[in-house]
Task: inverse folding
């Protein structure tokens, strides 16, 4: 492997690169040490160029959307973070379908759907992620999920091929898909919606927004629900019943407003959050027998617990 600065400098001649970029600037947790490099490609060709370059120079890479489901370690990431966000936000409506680039925010796509009288995406209007992250996670809320509206995605394979994959082949399940396993990068998606009543669409979006404001700790940085919903239970209720409301490690806390959220009280480290997650898991298992599984993705090194 060659000198770190050398490969970053070389790649920087072709694509916009931020060097030693603090990941806390790119995660909704507002936590995370530096990535060696953060690439901001502007076109699918540049994405392919970055991937090809990383393979050629034996550098690991990680694809980032809005970082709203991500905990990055305090030491950061030894490799390249490829961010598909602001430069990939084109949204086109064609009849009842919306063709969208992977960096577009769900809120913007849901707003476009409403403005063009299309229904089906109201559930996603308050999820602070990109289309790419939402497809990978099969994001869902209030009875809706991406699986219900996704027609197909365009992906870049590890080998540099661009493929159009029908939604049925993505194995979309509860907060999972086959995309990470296959090492695919989502470049865009086509959503299949239906003609609806604009007033009703807006009313539903407003209703869901109100529910989020009332129930979720939106005033503090977090990554949303920390744990997946265990079959037959609610993670937040199990955590509350285990007496862990407000449980704190350093600057990380089980939200007092919604026990399913871990919040950053202002100066939390990734180590604080991870310790807290592990302790919550341990105590909930001890008290209820239920095994909680983190929904939040980890990037960088975290101790096994
Ligand atoms: C306040 C709050 C509320 C939330 N509410 C909800 C909710 O109601 N429902 C819900 O499901 N989630 C919720 N979340 C979690 C999060 O917003 C979703 O999981 C979202 O889909 C993540 O999108 P992202 O762009 O931020 O992805 P990131 O967090 O950046 O990435 C998530 C995963 O997707 C991968 N990824 C991202 N983009 C691509 C791409 N283009 N190609 C390949 N892989 C990619 C990443 O590598 C990572 O594995 C909430 C989060 C917060 C902070």
Result:
């Amino acid at each position: 492997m060659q000198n770190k600065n050398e490969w970053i400098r070389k790649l920087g001649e072709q694509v916009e690169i931020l060097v030693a970029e603090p990941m806390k600037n790119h995660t909704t947790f507002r936590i995370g040490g530096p990535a060696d490099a953060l690439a901001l490609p502007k076109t699918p060709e540049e994405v392919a160029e970055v991937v090809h370059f990383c393979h050629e120079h034996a550098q690991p890479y990680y694809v980032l959307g809005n970082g709203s489901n991500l905990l990055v370690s305090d030491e950061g990431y030894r490799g390249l973070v490829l961010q598909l966000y602001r430069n990939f936000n084109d949204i086109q409506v064609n009849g009842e379908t919306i063709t969208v680039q992977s960096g577009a925010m769900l809120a913007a796509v849901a707003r476009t759907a409403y403005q063009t009288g299309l229904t089906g995406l109201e559930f996603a209007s308050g999820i602070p992620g990109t289309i790419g992250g939402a497809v990978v996670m099969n994001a869902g809320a209030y009875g809706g999920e991406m699986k219900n509206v996704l027609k197909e995605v365009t992906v870049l394979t590890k080998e540099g091929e661009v493929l159009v994959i029908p939604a049925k082949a993505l194995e979309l399940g509860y907060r999972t898909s086959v995309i990470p396993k296959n090492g695919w990068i989502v470049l865009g998606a086509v959503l299949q919606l239906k003609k609806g009543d604009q007033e009703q669409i807006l009313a539903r979006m407003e209703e869901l927004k109100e529910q989020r404001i009332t129930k979720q700790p939106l005033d503090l940085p977090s990554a949303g629900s920390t744990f997946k919903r265990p079959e037959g239970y609610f993670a937040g209720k199990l955590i509350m019943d285990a007496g862990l409301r407000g449980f704190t490690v350093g600057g990380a806390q089980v939200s007092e407003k919604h026990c399913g959220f871990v919040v950053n009280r202002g100066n939390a480290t990734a180590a604080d959050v991870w310790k807290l997650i592990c302790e919550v898991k341990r105590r909930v298992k001890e008290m209820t027998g239920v095994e909680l599984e983190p929904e939040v993705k980890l990037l960088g090194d975290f101790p096994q617990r």
